[in-house]
Amino acid sequence: MIAGLTLLTQLLVTNPGTISTYQAPAKFAYAKVVPGGTTILPNGRFLTPLGDRLYTGEDLWNVLVNPAQTHAVGFHDGGMTIYDLKTKKSTRLERKAIAPAGAFLPNGDLLVSLGDAYQLELLKANTWESLGFINLKTDTHPYPYINDVVIDPKTMLAYGVDISYQDVVTFDLKTRQLLHRTPAGRQPYALSFDPQTKQLFVANIGIFNYSRVPAPEDGKGNPRGLNTPAFAFPTEESEKGIYKEGRFVPGLGSPYVPDAHSLFQYTLANPKAPKLKSSAKTGLLIHSPTTAGKAVGGSSPNAVITTSKGIIVSNANNDTVQIFDPKTLKSKAQIRLAPVPELAGLRGTIPTGMALDSKSETLYVCCSGINAIAVINLKSNRVLGYIPTGWFPMQVRLANKAKSLVVATQKVLAAALVAPSPHASPVTKDTDSRTCPA
Fold this sequence. Notes:
Layout: E1 9-15, E2 18-23, E3 39-40, E4 46-47, E5 52-55, E6 62-65, E7 71-76, E8 79-84, E9 90-94, E10 102-104, E11 110-113, E12 119-123, E13 130-135, E14 146-152, E15 157-162, E16 167-172, E17 177-183, E18 188-194, E19 199-204, H1 236-240, E20 242-244, E21 247-249, E22 262-267, E23 275-281, E24 289-290, E25 293-294, E26 301-307, E27 310-315, E28 320-324, E29 331-336, E30 351-357, E31 362-367, E32 372-377, E33 382-388, E34 393-399, E35 404-409, E36 414-418
Antiparallel strand pairs: 1-2, 3-4, 5-36, 6-7, 7-8, 8-9, 10-11, 11-12, 12-13, 14-15, 15-16, 16-17, 18-19, 19-22, 20-21, 22-23, 24-25, 26-27, 27-28, 28-29, 30-31, 31-32, 32-33, 34-35, 35-36
């Protein structure tokens, strides 16, 4: 299963006189679903996931494991599915407007973002009864959307990224109030809290500064919107804006500003009001040279975790995991993810969610594009291999004292409980091409 290829076969000349051939393993076989066996996807790739299948709802974007490691919570369309990891019994909680964001308190209570309902909700541990809400909607910010959230258990403050208004938002869990907003970069997507240094790190996934198209002046345009696109890209109008159909349409801004595709660092000297300390661009800069020509688009940093090795970011558009110094935000290392070394110049692995086993210094990274979990030794920054998953893994969590992984796969209806391995999964190249030599 080679990610990012649209042709049936890919030929690479690795040495003079030698041609390596890569193709979708299904060849001419029809797509089919085989639970417990080899599923064939419409693109010709195979799915051979390890572990128990824990079925949830459609579009499973995120999964959390509670502090006691007894339950896993999957966030999907229409609500959450909570699994008892011992009995495999499940409980479904309906929440129509839920976002794929939540965090556990040390006592097992669960804080979740209700997305388009403009609220956070606190749920009681084990019974999952509602303990109350934090309202986010205000006159100045009527359409907030919290896409990720973390908790400082000592202060009982929570921090969320509002992707609608591009802010870091502070919440008081004791008083159930929104306390403060701090500007973030473009489309803040994920954040991580470092309890040792009392800092927040935010991954800004966006490249443009989007804004609403205003209503036209009376009698000068269609109040329902524009009849034709406001501008092309890249143009001066797309950056600065244009007067069109009776209104001024704001531009998208420059894609090269520090806010775009970046990592922001905030200090918490005042825990209620995070203060921006520094920022860094992640991954490859737009139009920078690569093995396949100039880089197209930005790096798309979509997950961030704090570790003793540094701040780790997954760059989905660059197929890299990047490690930053927590003091200077200088890049210390970039780890390339590819199913085989010969294809490292192509893109499509799509690294997303991450989990760290701090004891063994092993990093697990969802590779959404190749339906696998990358296993990385942070002592050597070496990719040890890949564990096969279901279709499009988005998040991975440790469970069972780091003896198991819980993986959320976004497509179809399932999460999986698998046992981690420090090496590539034991599948053969006859059935699956995700294995990578260590």
